[in-house]
Write a structure and sequence with these properties.
The chain is α+β, with helices and mostly antiparallel strands. The chain has one helix and five strands; from the N terminus they run E-E-E-E-H-E. Strands 4-3-2-1-5 form a five-stranded antiparallel β-sheet, covered by helices on one side.
């Protein structure tokens, strides 16, 4: 499950992306991968580990709602 968001506000010189993905890790857990930064540039990466896919999916949904509230929209 992946989710890609962008926020473009030229008047504020803000061209941002936020990417969420769920991957299995090598230890039988599930990782929520977050990457964010300026469009066209390498982003910052964060990996959070969860015990189950349901926990990771719930965290992804929480973050997606938060990003939508902050003006991000789903990338095409």
């Amino acid at each position: 499950m992946d989710a890609d968001f962008i926020r473009i506000e030229p008047e504020r010189n803000s061209f941002r992306f936020y990417r969420l993905a769920i991957w299995p890790d090598l230890f039988g857990r599930v990782a929520l991968i977050r990457e964010w930064g300026r469009l066209g540039q390498p982003g910052t990466l964060r990996v959070d580990s969860y015990g189950s896919a349901d926990e990771a999916r719930a965290a992804l949904n929480r973050l997606a709602r938060s990003k939508r509230r902050r003006g991000y929209r789903q990338a095409a």
